[in-house]
Design a protein that fits this description.
Length: 134
């Protein structure tokens, strides 16, 4: 298990300052999981920043094309969403775990980067989950 050593605000601030760095320097937390086609894929996170301070950390998941040098990455899913109002505490993010993200929920929680708080934001036809960074 890997531990994230920064708060979500610190990570968001670093992401906004580092947005001009080459892509390979912005991704972190590489992991392998089953993709949408039920095959093993190599993924990585990219951090960004939402303007809203109540939930500033934006996380995207990218997938490698499988080449040895891992220089070709494609966007795979947006893990977090920016929803207001919310009751996120420090170190918490709002996660979309339905539709195209549903198949990754358990794999992402098993990584050890996140813990489901059990709190939900009810939308008209679905729910958003609030996860804490470990």
């Amino acid at each position: 298990m890997t531990t994230l050593k920064k708060t979500n605000f610190d990570m968001a601030l670093m992401a906004s300052h580092g947005s001009e760095r080459p892509f390979e320097s912005r991704i972190f937390g590489r992991f392998t999981a089953k993709g949408v086609m039920d095959t093993d894929e190599t993924f990585a996170f990219e951090a960004g920043r939402y303007a809203y301070v109540g939930s500033p950390l934006a996380l995207q998941v990218w997938v490698s094309d499988g080449k040895v040098d891992d220089v070709w990455w494609e966007p795979y899913l947006s893990l977090t969403v920016n929803h207001r109002p919310n009751d996120c505490g420090p170190g918490e993010v709002i996660v979309k775990t339905y539709e195209e993200n549903a198949h990754m929920r358990e794999a992402l929680l098993e990584l050890g980067y996140f813990q489901d708080t059990g709190r939900r934001i009810n939308l008209e036809f679905s729910q958003l989950e609030i996860w804490s960074l470990t």
